[in-house]
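Teaching soon. Invent one.


***
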Amino acid sequence: MNEKLHNWKHLKQRRKELRNNATLSEKRLWNFIKNSQLEGRKFRRQHSIANYIVDFYCPSEKLIIELDGGVHNNTVNQNHDFERQGFLVDKGFTVIRFQNSAIKDSIEQVLTEISNNFATTT
């Protein structure tokens, strides 16, 4: 079964809105991973997989990076994140999460952890 999971048309406007209104942490991380800067891996911002829009996606690695701010610290959003992550993992994706504070305070450690999730190094 070859179901289309990526970038459903009905989410196009929402993806664009999220890219245009990125958080400071998203902008900061993007500056380090855009244009294949991190070990030659291409990343996409605000990419949709099924009905979910992920912060960053590396197609060659099937790697999803999610950034979590204060809004993720309540039970409703935590349950949604858990269900969403379960769906994505079941579809064969790897999902890693970082707190916004890690992007601000220890970007080098974040980049190392992202690289450690690559199947092979260049």
Observations:
- The chain has a mean pLDDT of 90.
